[in-house]
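Recap quiz, item 2
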Amino acid sequence: MTVEWKPPRPGRWLAALLGAFFLAASNANAADVKGKVTGYEHLRNPVWVAAKDPERHGYSFREPVTTVPAAMRKLFPQVSKEICVVALAGSPAPAGKPYNVRISGGRTTPVTLVVAPGTELRFKNADPFEHRLYGVGLSTFAASTTAKGGLRRWTPTEAGRYEIRDELAPSVSMWVVSEPTAVAVALPASDGRFSLELEPGQYNLQAYFAGEAVGRPLPVVVERRDVDVTSRPLVLATKPPVEDNNP
Amino acid sequence: MIATRFWLGIVGLALAFAMLVGQLAVSMHDRLGMRMVSEGLAADSRVVSWYLRNAAREDASQLIRFAANDAVARALASASRANEPSDIDGATRRQLKSTLSKIAAEMQRADAFDAVFAVAQSGEVIAHIGFDQAAGSPEFELGGYPVVADALHGYVRDDTLQLDRLYRVVARPVEFEVGQLPAGAIVGARVIDDGFAAALAERTGAAVAFYAGGRRQAAGLPPGLQLDGLDQIVSDLPSLAGDADYADKGRSSVHELADGMAVIYSRLPGEAWQLGAGYVVARQGYEVGGLRGVLSQADSKDKEAIQTLLLIAVAVGSIGIGLLLSVWEYNGPLNAFRRQVKSLSTAAGARFAAEKLRAPFRQLGLDLNLALDRVARAGGEGAPISIGFEQMFGEAGSPPSMSAFGVPPSVPPVSPAPAEAAAPAAAFAPVGGGAPPRRPPRNAQQPAVAAIPAPSPGGAPDSPLFAAPTGGTVMGIGDFPSIPPAMPVDPGYGLGPGIAAQPMAAPAHGHVNGNGHDEVEPEWTQVYQDFVRIKQDCGEAVEGFTFERFTQTLRKNRDTLMREHGVQQVQFSAYVKQGRAALKAKPVR
């Protein structure tokens, strides 16, 4: 079957140009806020910590490799996937754009996500096998199979903290925080640096891990130019948790 | 026939006991067999668990080939420095995959993994071999699995992952710089398929199957075993929900399936534990299924263990004992009786030698002797022998007969006869001491048959004169509905077994009492002689048994009967009852 291409009429060209202009104008006032998170090496991934418990029967043997320094043999999170930095405004914000969540490798990316209520989440199965995500205690997100490459949508409509799990992969555990004042979210890079695009205004930058806010919020005032708060990093934790006594 | 019957009882009890022992043996065998199977299954389950753990350790050692390779470490370190997976150049990926393939090719076939993954610190899979499902998927990662996360943080460990299939997985860190976080991890995986299960079964000797998601994933049987029913576990898996041992310890109790198969379920270590995946070991039970199964399942070794000669000896001995007893108790007396009948028919002897016979032929002989005597008296030597009801108990429809002195219990007992009474013509030497009555009256209100005490040689009987009825001989009552037609006399009461009633002829001699009757009826001599002869035939003592005392007793009882029943005559007759001499009395109008 062949499709004949017809050039758009002049009126449509004009509408497209106007749309692009207003879109650029709306972002023209936005500014990049660059920052950094530190102290994440003192956090512990709760799923991995639970899995090392011998009572869970998660392995038949588990031994440390002594050539790896003991300080490194801690189950701290993968900062680029498990830490979420969110900009909180002083008043409720409208729902953001749909957010893509990737399911692969025994977890979701991101693991923790903070969004404004009404923001649609799109779960994409990037594994070569099925997953069955469900919301713990959520009737609006019951267990359902997502085939390889499949997509599943869910929108938290009310503020709250939701846990998403997978019936076929016990290690998959995602937290969605529906925060009315959340206006932007960023995932740090492997070195802890992050960048947020914010409209001018006053915000509090808050890091989240495992569905909970970690560290103190960092107030930021955004004007019509980029802001670099790297010198004032978000300190997620200052000391290791107690469970480190059990390697 | 007592001994024969006793022997039959012994044989019957022995047979029942043999069945009891057989059933107990089958039950004990099945119970012990199931216990052995249970112990064997527990051992199999432990061996499989040990094998899985040991194999995982060996696999972790094999991973050193990859982890210690400089090219692998360098490539992973380079990939881990990239901020985004897309920043990792394709050349690094291709080079790493080539290195992995080269190392895998150098490994022995038995040590080779089904799939190997090189994972960067971020969890992204930089290169992999043997896992074509993820080919062309640059976003494929493994960093979320605890086994990979542990390796990325400096641990070596194993896991069982349920992905598209079941995988036994080991992972260890890849170090590039000493004292730094590992550059990545190397992950080796083995698919749990029929080949994996077969190798496991061959090395452990256990019949094993793996299950996940409610389905059997793989099965392996050691050489020489055929377990067609292993698929039964699929229908049995739901029962694990109620198995407390399985939930708490990860190992179930013994589950008995159809066809005598027994299994034990065990959970697989790793993430598969939480997903309900596991393995099952199976053994065939040793149930024989009852006594019939003992015969059907016995093999040549069992049959060789049978002591055939002993069984034959027991069977022959039992049969022989039974035959001997039957010959001794039945054939012997029958032959003796037959010989006497034959001698009687050839006129070699005029009477049966009852003392030479054993019961019941002795009784027959005595009765036949009596019948012969009567026939001889009635019709001569040539008269035919006819022994019927009339002869033994009187004619049916004729005036009722009763035992001598067979009157209601209100009749007073016979007074003792004087010991110094005159001896009859056929004198017998008196002996002292009369036999006491053997049986008390049973039912004095219905004197169908009464017994008369025999005149004791040494004195009068001290027992009641009339015994209780001993039978229901009520035929021929006729005009005397209240009096039974025949009344055999219990031999234990004096004159012994009864004498068949005979029509009494007019007294030929003797005295006449006040009622117009002779003191001694003419027939009483014959009755006496019959009675004495019967006693002798029965082997009873006749010393001191005088005719005078005999007639005294008859007289008193005759008078009593005549008074009670208003009859003019009473006929007495001697007969044999239960091997002893007895008398019968028959009132005649």
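The interface with chain B takes residues 45, 47-48, 51-52, 56-65, 67-69, 72-76, 78, 80-81, 102, 104-108, 126-129, 168-172, 189-191 of chain A (CB under 8 Å).
The CA atoms of residues 50 and 56 of chain A lie 8 Å apart.
End of item.
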